[in-house]
Amino acid sequence: MGQTFAEKMLAKKAGLEKAVPGQVVDITPDVALSHDNSAPIYETFKKMGGERVFNPEMHFITLDHAAPPPSTQHAENHRIIRQLVKEQGIKYFHDVGRGICHQVLVEEGLALPGEVVLGSDSHTPHAGVMGAFGAGIGRSEMASIWAIGVLWLRVPESLKITVRGKLPPGVTAKDLALKVIGDLGADGGLGMSVEWHGDGIAGLPLNERAVLPNMMAEMGCKNSYIPPDQVAFDYLADRAKRPYTPIYPDPDAAYAREVEYDAATIEPMVACPHSVDKVVPISDVAGTHVDQAFLGTCTNARIEDLAVAAEVMRGRTVAPGTRMIVIPASSLVYIEALKAGYIQTFVEAGAVVESPGCGPCMGNHMGIPAVGEVTISSANRNFQGRMGTKDAEVYLASPAVVAASAVKGTIAHPRDL
Fold it and tell me: Last residue of some domain: 208, 233, 261?
């Protein structure tokens, strides 16, 4: 019997010939990712007796969750992190303005095929877009890695999702991800390794592929993987920080569950408050008033997402009584959007464009809704209070739908404008 990607990946990192689901292995990750939470991790590290971090070159720290800092407390947090980076000689550090950690990790050529990325952030499975094993871990677990460079992991069961065919015009990977989560449930991939296969996946550009492993965190997965191909290799050609060896599952690997989708049957989807698996076709909620439209986050704020939204908004304006916030995923995306004229389009339409970072996605700043307000967002999470206000509602949708909803003032698809 062959092995799945996760079984083969973790066996390799543990120095074993084979690994099976449920087995516990000790591994040293290739990348240890953290962000604004690096300060409390450092405190735990010191309480453990840590003095010098294990291999300063394996650590990747980006200030993105409260950047620029919205309070003195956040600013002090950032000061502590800058100090520890300097004292510990951490090589890969990105300060305020560079962008969201998951996007920047890929742009910097540190999410590599056949490598392990462990991050103190739940959306670390994002690294799977490049064929890496990306998994979110707790702060104390990260502190342990800082101290000794090793962490135990349970080898997960695997879920295989095969997508055939091509998505219809106006339908995106975000709609596919929401459809899958709606079908399988918010715990449908709990603790599992989710693999994406089929020509429907191979035919997607990288920006669309990235949505899938990112969103699988909302289904409770441990990691999510897309087999790396020439598209990924070409992207990494002048970015990869070191040589890499891709890992692929065996054709006869055994999966705990297998599901298939016909891409042609997917339609625009929306996740309704207050659960990411409360998914319906957009026609079911079209016309719902929105106070705020948010285009951003590690899920859907790459240049292609901004391009789609700008096309929808060109020559139009944000509806009276509705506001729109745009936050590029990284500084590179921001620069591209400036050169392409997308930023001007957004501003002329009445939108507000903020510096790269997480912004209101986790309720820190730059777009927290008022009590009773409704936001439509291109983010990945919509549980109650996620954007900082308990008594507010968040709908999730694709960038095109977010832009169209901003223009119309109600949930809408561009074809409805």
Answer: 261
Q: Kindly state whether residues 128 and 110 are assigned to the same domain.
A: yes
CB 376 within 8 A of CB 254: no
Domain count, the chain: 2
231 and 300, same domain (yes or no): no
Residue type, 29: P
Distance CA 286, CA 320 (A): 18
CB atoms within 10 A of CB 120: 25
Whether residue 212 contacts residue 176, with contact meaning beta carbons closer than 8 Å, is answered with yes
Gap between the Cα atoms of 398 and 119, Å rounded: 26
Q: Which residues contact 237 (CB under 8 A, 6 or more apart)?
A: none
For the stretch 383-407, what's the b/e string if a residue is b when 16 or more beta carbons lie within 10 angstroms of its beta carbon? eeebbebeebbbbbbbbbbbbbbbb
Tens digit of pLDDT for each residue in 122-150?
A: 999 999 999 999 999 999 999 999 999 99
Q: Is 371 exposed, middle or buried (0-12, 13-18, 19+ CB in 10 A)?
A: exposed
Residue 173: give the domain boundaries. 5-261
Neighbours of 257 (CB within 10 A): 14
One domain for residues 106 and 207 = yes
Distances (CA, A) of 145 to 4, 8, 116, 225, 275: 26, 22, 13, 23, 33
Neighbouring CB atoms inside 10 A of 315's CB total 9
CATH number at residue 388: 3.30.499.10
How far apart (Å, rounded) are the C-alpha atoms in residues 5 and 38? 30
Token pair, residue 398, equals 């694709």
Looking up tokens 């042609």, which residue turns up? Answer: 264
CA–CA separation, 103 and 305 (whole Å) = 13
Instruction: Give the total residue count for the chain.
Output: 417
The DSSP code for 246 is -
Distance, in Å, from the CA atom of 63 to the CA atom of 81, rounded to the nearest integer, reads 9
Tell me the two tokens of residue 67: 């950047």
Chain segment 81-117, per-residue pLDDT in tens? 999 999 999 999 999 999 999 999 999 999 999 999 9
303 touches 309 (CB < 8 A): no
Asked whether residue 289 falls in the same domain as residue 257, the answer is no
**Both 216 and 302 in a single domain?**
no
List pLDDT tens digits, range 375-392. Answer: 999 999 999 999 999 999
Report the alpha-carbon distance of residue 291 to residue 283 in Å, rounded.
Answer: 19
